[in-house]
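Thread: Newbie trying to understand structure tokens

Hi all, I'm a second-year student working on a class project, and my supervisor (Dr. K.) asked me to get a predicted structure for one chain before our next meeting. I've only ever worked with sequences, so writing a 3D structure as a token string is new to me. If someone could post the tokens and maybe explain what I'm looking at, I'd be very grateful. Here's the chain:
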Amino acid sequence: MSSGGIVFQRDDEDRIIVTQVVSGQKELFKLLIKRHEQAVYGMGISFFHNADDAADFVQDVFLKVFRNLSSFEGKSRFSTWLYKIAYNTAINSITRKKDYQSLVEEDIASNHNSPEHKLLRSLARNAVFEAVKELPERFRVCIDLFFFYDRSYQEIEVITGYPVNTIKSHVFRAKRILREKLADYTELNLGGD
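---
Reply by user tm_fold:
Sure, no problem. This is what the structure looks like when written as tokens:
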């Protein structure tokens, strides 16, 4: 599988860069930032809901990563270790009211420019966003990490501290809830053809 090879190649490259930075080539750290900045920024938007706070969050996370880089042992993917730091930073930064907001809200650019496609995409995105927004926070976090960040259950365990079986349960229950909430929407849109 070619995408699996790409992931492993990227992971190997991250490990090499980390080793070089820890050995004194500190200027190479900017490569790690460039490779992972968008994902960390997306997590920041999910938690803080605005670009300024998300940008500050990115700086905080990469500062922590730089300071702790020598503690990365390579037992997991670098991105998993990084996301754990980012997740913990966000959790420690948000208020008690739990302001987490799913990445579903983000407007992902489309290559299709027809007005009809844009309208249908917008309606579908809004329906999914509204359904995800109603999920309990622990479900939303697991769904985001699993689907949008493409993390395995084991990686989500490392990032969130939830046990794997709890994560599986959260993802399963969230998918079931979303399927039920979106059933009417899909019937309306598919039934009209």
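A couple of things are worth pointing out once you decode it. The two ends are 36 Å apart (CA to CA). The chain is about 75% helix and 0% strand. Feel free to ask follow-ups in this thread.
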